[in-house]
Structures are given as C-alpha cells and as structure tokens.
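Progress report, Aim 2. The chain analyzed during this reporting quarter is listed below.
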Amino acid sequence: MRSISKGAQPQDLIRWRADNAAVPQNLVYGAGGFPGEAVRQSLLAEQLHLCAYTMRQLKTAEQCQTDGLDTRASCHIEHLLPQCRKVSGEDIEYKNMVACYPPSQTHVACEFGAHAKADFDPDTGGFVSPLSPNAQAHFKFDERGGLHGSTADGVSTIRVLNLNHPALVNDRAAVVKGALQPRGKKLTAQAARRLAQQVLRPDAQQRLPAYCVAIALTALQHADREERRANRTKKVGA
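Predicted structure tokens for the chain:
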C-alpha cells in the first residue's frame, strides 16, 4: 500500500452539491447527475494511477479515451467507509473516495482489494487506510511477491483485503524480479539504491509503476545484502 495525499475535490462535485442543496434526497452517491467521471479522473490523478489498495496500475483517462471509453474502464470508486453504514452525506464525501481495481466495466471476478473488503468498516479497527501518511510503514515485501505486516494493523489489513491472493503475489514477484534482475543480471547495490528512488517518481504521464513500493523496498533489501556480501568478501581477502 502507498500513502495517498488527498487533493481538493473536483469542481464538478462541488457544483453538483450546490445544484442539489435544496433537494437533499438527490444528494446520494450514484444519483442522477452525480459527476462520476470527474471524480474518477480526480482520484486517478492524485493516486498517480495506482489502485489505492493493491498498487496495480490503472489506465489514465487519456488511455481510456483512446479506446473510446470513459474511466469506468480504468477503475471503480471505492468508499473507505462503506455505504452500508448509511451515514448521511458520507457516501458523497470526496475524502471518503479512492480509485480501485477492478474497473467498473468488467466482468472479471476479483477476490482481493476492494471486493474482498466489501462492507468491512475501518472504524472498527485493524485497518490501515491508504490516506494514512505512513501507510507504507505497516508492510514489508519480499522478492517472492509476498506481503507481510510489520504491525498488527498491517497484518489485519492484508487479511481484510486478501493482499496475498496468488494473482497479486505472482504479479508482484514478476515485477520485482524484472526490476532487480533486468536482462537476467542482478543489480549492483548502487544501482538498486538508485532504483529505489527512481521507482517512486511519476513518469511524464504522471503515473507510477505497478507495485512501486514493493520494488523500492525490495531494492533496498537487495542493496543491503549485496553490500554485506561485498564486505564479507573484503574481510576474507584481507
């Protein structure tokens, strides 16, 4: 999981609220006129096109438009505090929304992330919000694609979101291996430390690579191991 810095809500959402202020029954998520496209585009931009829970890369609005689609083909709007709470206004609070995999326009079964969370209420405890400023500190990754909790909340969050589902583990393992062993050759410690910094910087399209936090953390672990190995070799040769 990567910490998300929440930005200002889109102007279309502000206008929709104002236009329906006199008719509060219309101020419901998904009601007629709800600016879903504007909200999704705003969420994608502030999340640098990564799923809030899984860190899978999500299509940009431009990529969707090239295919003649809107951003429902990229993600769906996830409510951190579930709509089943029935708290008035909570379902249309921008701070309660994040963009998540899978896309709205998909028939693919998904057993992890937002779908696994379902109606779980984070207010009951045992959940790390991606809006937490130190969300990454609750988790550790290994080069086999595994995700481990470094705190009790991290352990619980992995279980709630099913973040060690085989599909995610396999994806993370492939991405990490490709990053740490480009063209089949292991990175040097120096190159791994450089990668750990670069992979957390968005590209020209303001996208981060899938599982960037996993790559960064495993790259640092790899660098530590390579440096220890080099130091042992020096001592033996001394």
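The chain has one domain: 11-232. Helices lie at 11-19, 36-46, 61-66, 114-117, 152-161, 166-180, 189-198, 212-237. These observations will guide the mutagenesis work planned for the next reporting period.
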